[in-house]
């Protein structure tokens, strides 16, 4: 007998509403609705249009309603750190600020000087210091004397805010909260002193719930508008990477993962947070996972460099397809040296190729002579960065790392997967490319009693999808 679930997967550039059918034979996914997610610039500020996202989700649910299928539940995952302010009357106050808004530049240093020192913040949270973390967004809003924050009675992270619009119920889901640098990974609760030191209360956040928690059901008006009954809404692993890691088809704990896309997140899965001088020096982050696990990982700039180069080349009437990029990269000799994909100069340049050329010139690296050389430099640099981070993970992991699982859109990137296998000297297992959607759906299936554990979920994934293994040819 088939069971049906709806997964909403929102990234920083696009979103999808997915219908999944699960049975003893496996899982099938169908994208019912795909839509863009664009930053909303207003003056010098950048926002997310949460109401447009809500409208697109409703359209996807309406398409699901037209199927007349018995939908078991709905779950939403999104990118991390961003949040909405909710007033005393339950209304969302304005638009949520976007993590790419430059209003947080310099905020970590100001926070460390005025509220708590850097070491205390990392010791309390185990989270990589990045300016756009929710902690520094809140501090920046306080410095701006934000009227929305001043009037807020609740703060909801993006998947929790959208689930609230569907159900009228407020929660703080564990994995999405863990991206904020506000959560204590030992207690799995909001760390009050991080907020109280800047005049805010931890009571702004609803109670923390774990993946699989039943938030509520669709509001009657929402259900009627979508042609659905009052379907249950589940708090899945609200952070898209946490949902993706739940879908890693690993057979044991001795693996590292690389969630590969615009951002690359490389890490291991452990049972307890690892907060040490070494992880602090390496700027590793301890984020939440399914079953109370911890994802010890590092955020790495991924295909952002190539995506932004493609945009710049398109403006100059050079529009390369992905197949062309692979062909051009394959026949270009390896780069004599590499760039650091995480360099600050690459965060948001107006002309990425020029930013890379300028960085190379300033650091004694050969400047790419043409577009093909630029492509090769980006691929070589990413593979080298992955190898460097994995070496550090090997030093701290409580188990030997035997293989690297590549999940997400990057699992389809055969050239980079082979280059990564060569760079790290380990087998690279590519797939599933739809890891986030699969993790989202399987957490719902577990809440419905179809699986009993994370291990069973991963076993189900292994039976349902094909993976490809890349052996290191030239380590």
Task: Give a summary of the structure in a few sentences.
By secondary structure, the chain is α/β, with parallel strands linked by helices. The chain is built from 18 helices and 21 strands.
What structural category arises from helix and sheet content? alpha/beta
Strand order of the largest sheet: 17-18-16-15-19-20-21
Mean pLDDT reading: 96
> How large, in whole angstroms, is the Cα Rg?
22 Å
Largest sheet: 7 strands, mixed
The best one-word shape is globular
Bin the strand percentage.
15-25%
Low-confidence sequence ranges: none
Helix content: 25-40%
Helix count from the secondary structure assignment: 18
Distance between the termini: 47 Å
Total beta strands: 21
Report on this structure.
There is one protein chain. This protein is α/β, with parallel strands linked by helices and 475 residues long. It is 38% helix and 22% strand. The chain is built from 18 helices and 21 strands. The strands form 6 sheets. Strands 17-18-16-15-19-20-21 form a 7-stranded mixed sheet, sandwiched between helices. The chain has a 6-stranded mixed sheet with strand order 3-2-1-6-14-13, sandwiched between helices. β10 (183-184) and β11 form a beta hairpin. The mean pLDDT is 96.
């Amino acid at each position: 007998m088939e069971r049906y679930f709806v997964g909403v997967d929102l990234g920083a550039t696009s979103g999808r509403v997915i219908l999944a059918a699960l049975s003893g034979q496996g899982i099938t996914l169908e994208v019912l609705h795909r839509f863009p997610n664009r930053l909303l610039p207003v003056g010098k500020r950048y926002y997310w249009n949460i109401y447009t996202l809500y409208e697109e989700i409703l359209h996807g649910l309406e398409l699901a309603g037209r199927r007349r299928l018995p939908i078991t539940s709905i779950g939403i995952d999104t990118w991390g750190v961003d949040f909405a302010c909710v007033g005393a009357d339950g209304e969302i106050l304005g638009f949520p600020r976007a993590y790419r808004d430059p209003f947080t530049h310099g905020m970590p240093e100001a926070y460390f000087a005025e509220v708590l020192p850097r070491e205390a913040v990392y010791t309390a949270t185990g989270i990589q210091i990045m300016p756009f973390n929710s902690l520094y967004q809140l501090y920046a809003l306080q410095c701006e004397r934000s009227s929305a924050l001043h009037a807020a009675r609740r703060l909801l992270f993006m998947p929790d805010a959208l689930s609230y619009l569907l159900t009228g119920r407020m929660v703080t889901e564990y994995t999405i909260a863990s991206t904020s640098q506000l959560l204590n990974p030992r207690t799995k609760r909001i760390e009050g002193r991080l907020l109280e030191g800047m005049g805010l209360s931890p009571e702004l956040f609803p109670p923390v719930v774990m993946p699989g928690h039943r938030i509520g059901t669709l509001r009657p008006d929402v259900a009627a508008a979508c042609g659905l009954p009052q379907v249950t809404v589940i708090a899945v692993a609200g952070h898209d990477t946490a949902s993706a890691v739940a879908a890693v088809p690993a057979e044991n704990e001795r693996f590292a993962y690389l969630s590969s896309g615009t951002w690359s997140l490389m890490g291991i899965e452990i049972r307890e947070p690892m907060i040490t001088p070494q992880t602090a020096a390496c700027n590793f982050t301890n984020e939440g996972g399914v079953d109370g696990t911890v994802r010890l990982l590092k955020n790495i700039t991924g295909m952002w460099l190539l995506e932004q180069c493609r945009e710049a080349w398109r403006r100059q009437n050079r529009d390369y397809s992905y197949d062309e990029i692979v062909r051009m990269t394959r026949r270009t000799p390896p780069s004599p040296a590499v760039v650091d994909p995480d360099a600050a100069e690459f965060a948001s340049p107006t002309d990425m190729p020029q930013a890379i050329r300028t960085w190379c010139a300033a650091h004694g690296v050969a400047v790419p002579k043409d577009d093909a050389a630029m492509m090769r430099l980006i691929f070589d640099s990413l593979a080298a960065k992955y190898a460097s981070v994995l070496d550090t993970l090997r030093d701290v992991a409580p188990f030997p790392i035997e293989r690297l699982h590549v999940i997400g859109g990057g699992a389809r990137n055969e050239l980079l997967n082979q280059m990564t296998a060569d760079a790290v000297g380990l087998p690279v297992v590519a797939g599933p490319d739809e890891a986030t959607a699969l993790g989202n759906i399987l957490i719902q299936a577990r809440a419905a009693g179809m699986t009993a554990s994370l291990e069973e979920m991963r076993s189900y994934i292994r039976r349902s999808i094909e993976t490809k293994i890349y052996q290191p040819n030239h380590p």
